[in-house]
Amino acid sequence: MLNPVQTIIAKELRSYFVSPVVYVIGAIFLAMVGLLAYSTVASASNQALRLMQIQNTYAQLNLNELLFRPLFRSMNLILIIVIPLLTMRLFAEERKLRTFELLLTSPIGVNEIVSGKYMSVLIIYSGMLSLTALIPLTLAAYATFDWRPIYLGYVALLLQGGLMLGIGLFASALTENQIIAAFLSFGMILALWMVGALSTAIGDTSLGHLLSYISFTEHFERLIRGLLNLKDILYYLSGMALMWFAAHQVVDSYRWK
Amino acid sequence: MIEVQQVTKRYGKFTALDDISFSIGKGEIVAFLGPNGAGKTTTMRIITGFMPPTAGTARIAGYDCLESPMEVKRHIGYLPETPPLYLELTVEEYLTFVGRIKGLHPEPLTSRMKTIMEQTGLSEVQGRVIGHLSRGYRQRVGLAQALLHNPPVLILDEPTTGLDPNQIIEIRDLIKSLAGSHTIILSTHLLAEATAICQRVIIIHKGKIVAVDTPEHLSARLQQSETLSLTIKRSYAGLAEELGRLPGVLTVTTGPSHNTYILETKMGVDIRDEVTKFIVSREVGLLEIKAQPLTLEDAFKVLTKETSLNPAESHPLQEK
């Protein structure tokens, strides 16, 4: 017997996989990551060659710094485009097709609906992300590198994706138009990213610190450097909880309109 | 079973429902009759707990729709105006999902699904994707969804729209067969449908209840006069006055075209024979004569303005 959240998750996964959405998004994501990984590896080996010519010795290169960090940063960028496409249908489609009336007149709570939907996209995203683990696993056969920043990089990508999915979930609850939902989440994620750039411009003031805390850039950067800080993990988890709550409030407010 | 007390619903400045109250006993079938925008759907959404009223209370089986929404939701099956269907799922997958969110356990759900699919005539399409089904089938899936957890109260928003005549009869029979064990509210804008299935009719118009009565009483109240429509080939001056002098004719008006006359006649006096003989004697070429059924529009005119039935106040046409 499935509980209500599991029922919603099962239905969402079914809907994602019977439509081409997941396949298209997954293919785009994996193709882009694969291409970036290839070009990063290529540029890393170029750099190694040049160093060898200059120093005329075999240089011990730090692959984590040269390869994985730029790759994780690029993956983060790809997520900004991919995640809104994944989450746009979550609530928008239900409202458009009026299936929301069924959910809201069934003995199931708004928190269960929102949690079920959030978890379903988290599962799909985790699946997509785990496929990219082939990249470090393949490279491990040819090179040696420190695994800790790789593990933490994946933790960072998982949390980063989770936060973006939460933003997408919230944006999808705001409108019944999927395209608008996608642009809204894209805009919100981009804004959160730019806040980080602004904080570097402002510099070492209390406002600068606040802005850099709000933006994900610094938290993400610390994790992919292999630094595990509780406050970075807390940043992501609280952001995800906040987005869940915001989506919940919006869905709950439908009945008052 | 269903108690609605002084419910008002406003959307901004617009008042969709204005202080309506009614109650429906266990096992009754009641129709909400009204034109589009009368407030039928709003009333149903309030009863289902989908939306709260601005003022007033609604109760189902003693549970307040605002205070104990979960209990209310367990007691109702609701078919909205647009059936809430996931087009990418098959009928079977969809009903399984609905059964689960309604809290049915797996074994009773399987047998219940079988019964419901037979009742609604879905057995042969159970493996098909809902998006590929015709409108009539989709409506049936919507109905199956509402019946699935065998709720004591059924709320059906225009259950027969989009169906062909045979399907309409099937669905009406199905609804009738559920009476007694279920309390049913259905909305419709067809007077004939309301009289065919329901024991009681609630007529709403512009957010107010205009009449609550049995279909028999309502018909009696409405049909104090009958209408004949008459079409002739050649125009004939003064025909209207002459028709007006026939016994049993109350008023004469010209119809949509010049040579069509609408005769309002006394209730229970069939004067088609006399009228036909009269027209034939004038040799104007009788093309058509028929009794006009009472439409919902007429019913509203009558119920919102009872006085217009009084022949003294109607205006016989003065044809030149």
Textual characterization of the structure:
The complex is a heterodimer of chains A (257) and B (320). Chain A has 257 residues and is mainly α. Chain A has 12 helices and no strands. Chain A is globular, with a radius of gyration of 20 Å. Chain A has one domain. With 320 residues, chain B is of the alpha/beta class. Chain B has 2 domains: 2-220, Rossmann fold (3-Layer(aba) Sandwich); 224-313, 2-Layer Sandwich (Alpha-Beta Plaits). Helices cover 34% and strands 28% of the residues of chain B. In chain B, the strands form 3 sheets. Chain B has a 6-stranded mixed β-sheet, sandwiched between helices. The longest helix of chain B has 14 residues, at 106-119. The N and C termini of chain B lie far apart (59 Å). Mean pLDDT of chain B is 83; it is low at 306-320. The chains are: A mainly alpha (257), B alpha/beta (320). Chain A binds chain B through residues 1-2, 4, 7-8, 10-11, 14-15, 18-19, 97-109, 255-257, and chain B through 48-52, 70, 73-74, 76, 78, 80, 82, 84-89, 93, 97-98, 100-103, 105-106, 145.
Overall, the morphology of chain B is elongated
- What's the rounded overall pLDDT mean of chain A? 90
Oligomer state equals heterodimer
What's the number of structural domains of chain A? 1
Beta-strand portion of chain B reads 25-35%
What number is the mean pLDDT of chain B? Answer: 83
Morphology of chain A: globular
| Count of folded domains of chain B | 2
Strand order of the largest sheet of chain B: 6-7-8-3-9-10
- Measured as a percent range, the helix fraction of chain A is over 70%
Secondary-structure arrangement, i.e. CATH architecture of the largest domain in chain B? 3-Layer(aba) Sandwich
Query: Mind telling me the CATH superfamily name of the largest domain in chain B?
Result: P-loop containing nucleotide triphosphate hydrolases
Q: Strand portion of chain A, in percent? A: under 5%
